Amino acid sequence: MKSKNHRRVKTAAAGMLAAACLLMIAPQTAATPIQDKQSELQRIKSEVQTLDAQLETVVEQYNMTNVRADQIRASIAQNESKLGQLRADLSFRQEVLSARVRELYKQGNTSMIEVLTECKSVDDFISNVDMMQRVGSHDAGVIRDVLDTESQLEGVAADLDSRKAELTSALNGLAAQKAQIEGAVQQRQQLVAGVESEVNNLIAQEQATRAPSYSAPRRSPNYVPPAPPNANAPSVVRIAYAQLGKPYVYAGSGPDVFDCSGLVMYCYAQIGIDLPHSSYMQCDCGPRVAYEDLQPGDLIFFHGYGHVGMYVGDGQYIHAPHTGDVVRVADLSARSDFCGACRIL
What we know:
Elements: H1 2-25, H2 33-107, H3 110-118, H4 122-127, H5 129-134, H6 137-208, H7 236-241, H8 260-269, H9 279-282, E1 299-302, E2 307-313, E3 316-319, E4 328-331, E5 338-342
Antiparallel strand pairs: 1-2, 1-5, 2-3, 3-4
């Protein structure tokens, strides 16, 4: 009897083990066509977001380089003006020297004229001790100062020209990179649009076979939330709201088209505050603000300060996203690449 019971226990255990093995090796439920398409859509959208972030970085680097180019051009103009003044001074000094040479010639001091004509440089002129005894050291020093200053400024001008050429090269490189990324983004956006259409069709077919169910109304893409209720919110927020729907254009600074830093720069310019056209520079235009202390009007930055928007309260911000999009309101909580904020005072 005991042996039979033992055999029954072993048989039951073996059956349970076999059933468990079958469960373990049983194939998982296959994904539905909708799930397959949704997975493909999510993958493509992720790639598009990566390309958009790269494009934003390139655009803001381009903007920053443009700001620096303007600064260098201003410096070149200033130094060229100085150089022109010094050249005029030099011309005057040379005329004075020529008059004195003519006077010496009239006096018959041919030895001095010979020394003057043999000198190849100001150093030769000044180092000649005999010459220094017959010509005022003050005049020689003035000539040397003028020539040295001219030489120095010519060197500065040449350096600035070189930097300008480097900046031009950098701008060309960034423009080429921008065109390459924009082309890739356009291809991805077209692909996303195709997949989204397929997903929507599949969902519609599936929903047609089911009982109707309630769904919350979707917010219109043109919906404009009311201005922040905070009485202390800067008036610049109202200006930012007025730009909603205007298209993103590379390096745009308003009033009809914008890129991200161009939008912020334009809004603050309307209230008399000048900001540079670069998110990398704008982040240093005011004290830093912690995420939990954000107030309307604060500038908020993403993915290494390569993108900027304006916080408008209630966890939302206004920004010019990327090529193919328009100025819009977005939820800050949806961004995982927030990197800092500053307050324009």
